[in-house]
Specification:
Blueprint (H helix, E strand, L loop, with lengths): L1 H9 L18 H5 L11 H7 L1 H13 L3 E4 L2 E4 L6 H9 L6 H9 L11 H5 L8
Antiparallel strand pairs: 1-2
Helix pairs in contact: 1-6
Length: 132
């Protein structure tokens, strides 16, 4: 899920390419339709997602090595007590954290079922879902 959230953070306009929105994302359809289109031509989302995998893995490993996250049973959790104060202040003043897009990414996407025909893997087309 973390990789999908970070993918849509970088390419939010690709949320609009989902064939249909799974619940509870479907309640955000109007906000998603208002996301600005990219000024550049974006390749296939699934190819792009696959190409970003090594970057995702490196970023997760780097955060883990710095004790900023913990990984247990494939669940990544933030180690808030280890976050630098400067970073916390940056988040508090950052405009993105108050945007509809941010709320969709951190509040709605994680609630969406990942597997199955109606899951996020299937609807986004980013990952294989048929053998879940």
């Amino acid at each position: 899920m973390l990789k999908i959230v970070s993918f849509y953070y970088v390419y939010p306009h690709l949320l609009k390419r989902m064939e249909s929105f799974p619940r509870p994302l479907n309640y955000q359809a109007k906000k998603i339709s208002n996301i600005s289109d990219s000024f550049e031509l974006t390749p296939s989302p699934s190819s792009l997602f696959f190409e970003m995998n090594s970057t995702h893995e490196a970023a997760i490993f780097s955060l883990y090595q710095r004790s900023l996250i913990n990984i247990e049973r494939n669940i990544v959790s933030l180690e808030k007590q280890n976050l630098p104060n400067e970073l916390i202040q940056e988040f508090k003043t950052d405009k993105l954290t108050k945007s509809d897009l941010f709320k969709i990414l951190v509040e709605c996407l994680p609630k969406v079922k990942l597997d199955g025909n109606n899951g996020l893997k299937a609807k986004s087309g980013l990952m294989e879902y048929k053998y879940d």
